[in-house]
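Progress report, Aim 2. The chain analyzed during this reporting quarter is listed below.
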Amino acid sequence: VLGAQAVCQDAVVTQQLLQEGFHRELLLQVELGVTREDLGRCTVAARTRLPSGIYVDPYELASLQRHNLTKALVIPDAVDVEAPEYLAPELVVFLYMTPDPRCSGCFTATLPVHGRYHRPAENNGTALVTLKGPEILICCCDNHLSTECWKPSDVEAACLERSNYPCQWYSVKHKLVNEELIMQIPVGLRQHRFMVCVTTLLATVLCSSMILAAACKYGHSS
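Predicted C-alpha cells for the chain:
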C-alpha cells in the first residue's frame, strides 16, 4: 500500500530553464518523499502550460521520443512553429517523468522549448515570458492508493505501465521551490524599423540585380 498522505505532504518540485536565448531546455525535478520500492510501478508525470511566447517543436519532440529520450503529449498536437507570439495559442504539455538514479523517490524530465518572435519593443530589447509551475500527477494501477489528500484528475493519458488498461490519474499536492520562471527573449526595437526596412530593401535589390546580370550573361551559353 502506498501512503498518499506522505507523498502529498513531502513532494517538492524544482523547475529550471537551461541555456540562453531562443532555444532552451525546461528541467523538471520532483521529490516525492518515499522510496522507489514503495512507489512500485507508479508512473509520475507533469502537466505544464506553455504561454503563447514559448512553443514545443513537434518534429524535434518526435525525434526525441523515437530515441527514448523523452515521452510527452502536446495539446493541441498541431503546433505552428512559425507563428509569432501575438498570433499563437497556449500549449499544454503532458510530460512523463523518469526515475532519477541519484535519489530514491525522485523523478526528472527535460523538455526542449523555444521562444517565439515578439513585436518590437519601445526601449528594452528583451521580452519577458512567465512560465508557471506544473501540475504533478501520479498513476499507480498496481497499488492500492490512499487518496486522502489527492484529487482525481481529468487526465485521459495512458499510464505507461499498463498502456491499454484504464487507470485513474491523481493530482499530487506539492511545494514549488520557485513559483514561476522568467524567460528572456531578445526582440527588436521600434526605432530601428526604418533602418531595417531600408537595409532589407537595398539588399534585396542588389541580390536581384546580381542574379539578373548572371542570368543574362550566362543564359545563352547554357
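Helices lie at 4-10, 36-39, 58-66, 193-218. The two ends are 80 Å apart (CA to CA). These observations will guide the mutagenesis work planned for the next reporting period.
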